[in-house]
Amino acid sequence: MITRRNFLTSTLKGAVLSSTVPVLAPLWTETPDMMKEIQNKKHYRLPYHSGLGGVAIGNGFKPTSDEDAHEALEAAWAEGVRYFDTSPWYGLGLSERRFGHFLKNQKREDYILSTKVGRLLKATSKPPKALWQNPSPFQHEYDYTAAGVRRSVEDSLQRLGVNSIDMVFIHDLSPDNGDLKERWTEQFEIAVKGAMPELTKMREEGIIKGWGLGVNTLEPILKSLEVADPDIFLSATQYSLMDHQDALDRLFPACAKKDVSLVIGAPLNAGFLAGVDRYNYSGKMPEGYKEKRDKMRTIAQNHGTDLRTLALHFSAAPSVVAAIIPGARTAQQASENAISMKAKVPAEVWKELKAEKLISEQAPTPKSA
Ligand SMILES: NC(=O)c1ccc[n+]([C@@H]2O[C@H](COP(=O)([O-])OP(=O)(O)OC[C@H]3O[C@@H](n4cnc5c(N)ncnc54)[C@H](OP(=O)(O)O)[C@@H]3O)[C@@H](O)[C@H]2O)c1
To answer: The pTM is what?
Structure first.
């Protein structure tokens, strides 16, 4: 009899094991010494320094047309982007379906794909009010159990139309999740017994390459490092030009100690550092942030670069960071972000930002400038 468990094991194992690490050059070339160090590590580490995030492609903040979403993906691909991050939550399945529509024309071994687990989707005529404008007609139910995780991966495979997912992030198990708030710790305990060991098992079975949490706060990441064996985290909103001290103090040392790397989500603070008047996801603009942004923008321009490029390079610089995943709604945004990652940023910019106390003295800055 085919059960969910043996379906995933039999169909995916061969597919994942036979896939090879993509041969395209990463957008940000590592030195041979760095690559040797990375290959010696126990936990999976992405071979790319930059990818594309799927919030806007799932109608995050405002509606995105099917055409714009497809063109954004095409433009990212044309610029060499080969890492894509999405989630069942983004547009209640819409983002995964749009990624799948594009990726069906690509060879599976040519790109890396991550999605999330923790919310199962059920059909409804009234999707919940959230970040999504005109989402798919589904509602979500939290499920951080072992069976929930298997089911979620299977559902994602079907929406994406692919036979494997490389990395799985346990999504929004965090105090900033408005559905959970302080009850996140109860759900965390469910995940400690369910989702976390199950994802470790799926990694051992060869179904996925690695797993971690995908969250907007530090506590769940620090806690999971103590109780489980994750490979890579998606840390969103916690390491950007605007806000990074806590991550430098607490997140980076804890991850480095356990040989775990990071994907940085919202490197533009949900658009703020690309010029949008929106800061992250709460709808609130912290005091003084626009003024700080103006100062940094002027410094960037004085050095012949732009703030968005600075922001992307800044978030990608630390060695514990495997990749950044700026989101894009259009082809133009996707191309600009990928081109930014290939640009050189003069070292003097970082010195000036530090001298002006606009970024932390401790923040690693790109060595290739
Ligand atoms: N908990 C989690 O796991 C978590 C949380 C957050 C994010 N993430 C991941 O991280 C990814 C990145 O976060 P994000 O997409 O929310 O925010 P972001 O990357 O910080 O900013 C993306 C937004 O910035 C604007 N933008 C991007 N490129 C631009 C350009 N070249 N010119 C002008 N504007 C530009 C667009 O705003 P407009 O929409 O106004 O066009 C876009 O939607 C997500 O897509 C997702 O994959 C994960």
So the answer is: 0.91
